[in-house]
Amino acid sequence: SARDGTFELAGLPAPPYTVRVEHANYAPSTPVHVTDASQAVQLTLDAGQPVAGTVVDRSTGEPIAGARLSLKRGGQSERVDSDREGRFEFKRVSRGAYHLVADAPGHLSASRAVEVEGERRLPPDVEFELDPSGSLSGDVVDRIGKPIWNAEVATGNPPEWARAVRTDHGGHFVLRVLPSGAPSAMP
Question: Of the given ranges (55-64, 92-101, 122-131), which has the lowest mean pLDDT?
Answer without folding.
Answer: 122-131
